[in-house]
Amino acid sequence: MTDLPDLYFRIRDNGATVFRVDTENRQRRIEMDEIATVNLRNGHIKPHGERVLSAQELAEIRVWMEARTEMLARREVDDIHRAIDHMNLTTHWAQTRATDEMLEEVTDVLLLAMHDLRTVLVKKKADRLLRKAAE
User: Fold this and answer.
1) CB neighbour list of residue 62: distance below 8 Å, 6 or more residues apart
2) pLDDT tens-digit profile of 55-68?
3) What SS3 state is found at 22?
């Protein structure tokens, strides 16, 4: 059997459930003992039941939390780049293939969403420029 990690992180909304992986038993089966839950939003690590986490377990969990947070941030930016691609594809679709009925169905909600996005982006850009000028 290949070397398995000491801890396994079952991903869930905004965090994970953490398990200790054990293969050192008579049957050589993989056993997973739930040891904690992790909340990425507030940074809390909550031991499962009455368990006390070791310093090594806490350190491994914190390393995972940092890596997971960084990965999610990269994914978020990548999702925005995909949204830009979709906006370009939508523009091409509207110009070349959309029927009047299709455009009628989506035009108002697209215009509102684009107006909302533009408003937020312009405000955020102005805030950044003001902060930069103040420095």
Assistant:
1) 45
2) 999 999 999 999 99
3) strand
Q: Quote the Cα angle for 25-49-36, to 5°.
A: 70
Give the CA radius of gyration of the chain: 24
Non-local (6+) Cβ contacts of 29 within 8 A are: 23
pLDDT, position 2 = 60
Contact assessment for residue 8 and residue 19, using Cβ atoms and an 8 Å cutoff: yes
Instruction: Find the angle CA(124)-CA(130)-CA(135) to the nearest 5 degrees.
Output: 130
For tokens 């006390």, the residue is: 52
94-119 residue pLDDT tens: 999 999 999 999 999 999 999 999 99
